[in-house]
Structures are given as structure tokens and as C-alpha cells.
Amino acid sequence: MSVAFDITRDARATRVSEKALPWSVISAGSKDDTQELRQAGITLRFGRNETIFSEGDEAKYSYKVLSGVIRLCKHMADGRRQIAEFVQPGDYCGLLNFGEHRFTAEAVSEVTVTAISQRQVETLGENTPAMRKWMTGFLTRSLMGMQDHLVMLGRQTAKERVVSFLLMLADRAGAEDGDAVELPMNRQDIADYLGLTIETVCRVLSDLKRCRIIGLPNLHQAILTNMDALHDLADGE
Amino acid sequence: MSVAFDITRDARATRVSEKALPWSVISAGSKDDTQELRQAGITLRFGRNETIFSEGDEAKYSYKVLSGVIRLCKHMADGRRQIAEFVQPGDYCGLLNFGEHRFTAEAVSEVTVTAISQRQVETLGENTPAMRKWMTGFLTRSLMGMQDHLVMLGRQTAKERVVSFLLMLADRAGAEDGDAVELPMNRQDIADYLGLTIETVCRVLSDLKRCRIIGLPNLHQAILTNMDALHDLADGE
DNA sequence: CGGATGGTTGATGCGTTTCAACAGAGGTGG
DNA sequence: CCACCTCTGTTGAAACGCATCAACCATCCG
């Protein structure tokens, strides 16, 4: 299957060191809510901090996350980094980047993805109305998410940002008062998503814990002890 | 024409005070790069600070700006405001907000727009491939603009933000070294776009003027005396 | 055990905000 | 025409929130 070969070339272009290779091609085809994409992709695995694609790379493939979490980020010349989005299982990335990828995609944790060639996506979009509709919806949802993120970075305080972030994760996971939410990303990732430093994120989390608004049983979980307080804090008391 | 009537109802729903009315219906139909939209709209006029639509309003219409500038913003409960975008002549707003508008749109200056019903837009999208392609492109460009804005708010300093803003305006206007760019929005608008205070924006502009990197002949123009210096400042020296 | 990695906490400094006073442009009415 | 007012922008002084720098801690793993 020539797609497999192309994938390999594309991946090499992402500057993952040879050592980081090989990703295993696990299977061709996987479950997918979007019927038309079902048999279009092949599955790849990436280890922690491996690069899936880089900003500026030719966008030959899109990816659907099967397991693990991907961060989409921009690296500035002087090392500053801004994470635009955490892509979770069931979500897509690199979709509809005509020409070249606008972000670098890196594996936050062990990740498996289905790769779909952009050509296939475009063809599907041109021929199937349902697919088209889904893609427009996808773009619109992306835009909405980015809009909320924008307001957060522009006008919320450090505490508001961290709390909003926890609530966003809770919302995505369907967590309720008293439930635990997973924090697959590390503190630096959270900081770079929120436009803060790692120390500030730590301090806010410690504060919340001290006030018994959340619990932190380990580095990768937060227990939402008091959702009401969180909601109040999220928009400034 | 029943569309004209519907426009009136929609506009009233935007809570523009009766005093602020009437907007004049200037003409039906106007020039448009997108052939299919050419005869679809009617033209409306809004005065400075009038609301074109509000966040949460049912999105019955989209708007193409013919003249003037619109700001798209979110208002927080405590009065904080974040501007997501300045919509300039030739640009669109309110497009593809299925259901309800996600932003409040207000006139920065005297504005004339063409209003197009969402139903028409959708129908055009379903039937004409060129229109569909254009709309996908529009969404993608919006997303890209928002992504750059996001990085700016998350990771750039006050000076970098103001400089990037000037360069963005210069780029849009096609201005070169030595040219003047128009600043149709006031300082508060700039501050709310950049996630800063009005005082900080003032100080940075004054600084740039003092260093002879820009000139400020009046409140609504900036002369780009030294584009190279601006580009350097935009990404941290 | 020792080193590496990632996280937390404290002390200090800086950049931006806040608060306050003032300046300039434009508009109105005596 | 000028005094007066309002609106917006500018500048200064002080306060504050977050960043920076540095020390320390916990966990993991060879």
C-alpha cells in the first residue's frame, strides 16, 4: 500500500530522531465515527515527546487520536512556547491545513493515531455531503474553542486560567462534583497552554488544594472537591 | 422584499436603542468578490459604537463590511472586554455561526455593511462548489488569524504586542517603510485587542515615537518610520 | 545508593496595572 | 470669539501580580 510508504517519508520529515523510531504500524483501518474515514487510515504509535509533525511541514496527512494526548504548539525563536490545544482521543489534528501545518504536534503521552492522507480527506469532502458538513462543523468547533482560549489569555488572571482549565478538562471528561480528572500533561505543558510559568501553575494548584477546593492525590489527577467554588473562581468570584 | 423586513427585526433584537436608529437602507445589492453573494444582500449603516449584533443573538444574518471597521468582542460580567478581531472593508463577520453569534459586533467607526441571510449562505454553500471552497477557506483563514492572536496574548510582551499589531495593520493595508497606516480604532480598542490597558498601549506608542521608530501625526495614523526596527521588536529583538 | 526528572516553595525583581492628575481636540452656548 | 465642557489620550507614582532565580523535595530507575 503506497500510503504506508508515504507516511514514512512524511514522518521522517518531522525530524524525529532515528533513535525515536520506529513507530509501529499497528494496523490498517480502525474504528471511526465518521463512516467514510473508517478504512482510510493506518495506525501509528508515538512515544512521549515525540514529534508527530512540525510547523511548516507539508500537510500530507491528518491524524485522529485513538489513545493518549497530543499538544499542538508554536515554538518561538527564543524558546518561548504556546500550546494552542490538547488533542484527546476521538479528536483530530492537522485537518484542513491546506498546504502546510500551522502547528507542531507532539505526543504528551504514549499516543496512537490514525493517519489519513489529506488528498483522501479532500476527496471525501468533495463527494460526500455528510462528510462536508462534518468538516465545516469541525472547523467551527475549533474556532469556538480557540475563541474561548483567546479570551482566557487576554483577560483572565492566573487563578482564573488554571481553574478554567480544570473545568474544561472536567467538562470534556464528563466529570462531576467529587470526581477525579486526569491530567495527562505535565505542569510545563499546562503553563504553556495557559500563558503562565510552571511555578505559577504550581502555586495556584497548591492554593486550591490548601483551600480544599481540589485534591491532588498524585501528579496526574485532580479531584474536584468543590465544583461550585471552581465555577465561581473561573469568572472572578 | 421580505428579507428587508427580517433584517429590521433582527437588528432590533440587537438592542440598539431606538434613538440610535434609523439605519438607512441604502441599496439592495452591492459589489462583492464572491459572485454568488452579489445580489443576496441589502446595505445597512451603523454609527460609531452602535451594536450590529450581540453575543448569543440568533445568527440570522452574516455581514460583509463595505466601509468602516467593526470590532468583534466578548464582554465579561465584570466589565472586562476582549476584542477578537477588527473586521475591515471586504471582510465578513457573523459568517457560519450556526445557531447563535459567538461575539458582539460593534461599529468602531461609521460603518456600512451588506447583510446576507444565513439561510441564503447555507443554500449557496450546499449548491455551489466554488462557494463551498471559499467558505472553507474563509474558516481556515479565520482560524489562522486567531492562532496568531492566541500566541501573541499568551507569550508576547506589551511592546511586542503593540508592534505586532502595527505590523498587522501595515500588512493588511499593504503599507511599506515610511508609509502611514490608519488606526480607525481608539486606544481602548487597541488595548482590548492586545489584552493590555490603555495606559500601557499609550506608553509603548510614546516609546516607539521617542525612539523615532514610528511617527504619530494624529490620533488615527501611525507612520512606519523604521519597519526593520519594528520587525525586530515584534519577535523580541 | 546515586543520579535524573519533574514538581514545589521561597525570596526577589520587573512589567504591567491601577490610580490620579493633566493635556489636547472638538463642540456648545453665552 | 472665547469661556467652558466633555471626551480621549498621555504621563507620573505607586501597587500588585506574575516571572525569575534558586533551593529543595519526591519519585523513578539503573
Total number of beta strands of chain A: 11
Please work out how many helical segments of chain A DSSP would assign: 7
Quaternary structure state of the chains depicted: homodimer
The shape of chain A, in one word, is globular
CA radius of gyration of chain A is: 19 Å
User: Largest inter-chain interface?
Assistant: A-B, 38 and 38 residues
Largest sheet of chain A: 4 strands, antiparallel
- Widest sheet of chain A: strand order? 1-8-3-6
Strand portion of chain A: 15-25%
List low-pLDDT spans of chain A.
1-38
Alpha-beta content class of chain A? alpha+beta
The sequence of SSEs of chain A as H and E is HEEEEEEEEHHHEHHEEH
- Report, as a whole number of angstroms, the end-to-end distance of chain A: 57 Å
The pLDDT mean of chain A sits at: 84
Share of residues in helices of chain A: 25-40%
Please, could you describe this protein's structure?
Two copies of one chain form a homodimer. With 237 residues, chain A is an alpha+beta fold. Chain A is 39% helix and 22% strand. Chain A has seven helices and eleven strands. Chain A has helices at residues 2-12, 118-127, 129-155, 158-173, 187-194, 198-210, 227-234; strands at residues 42-46, 51-53, 61-67, 70-75, 81-87, 92-93, 104-107, 111-117, 180-182, 215-218, 221-223. A four-stranded antiparallel beta sheet of chain A has the order 1-8-3-6. In chain A, helix 2 (118-127) crosses helix 3 (129-155) and helix 5 crosses helix 6 (198-210). Residues 1-38 of chain A have low confidence and may be disordered. Chain A binds chain B through residues 74, 76-78, 80-82, 84, 96-98, 102-103, 125-126, 129, 132, 135-137, 139-140, 142-144, 146-147, 149-151, 153-155, 192, 194-195, 235-236, and chain B through 74, 76-78, 80-82, 84, 96-98, 102-103, 125-126, 129, 132, 135-137, 139-140, 142-144, 146-147, 149-151, 153-155, 192, 194-195, 235-236. Chain A binds a DNA duplex (30 and 30 nucleotides) through helix 6.
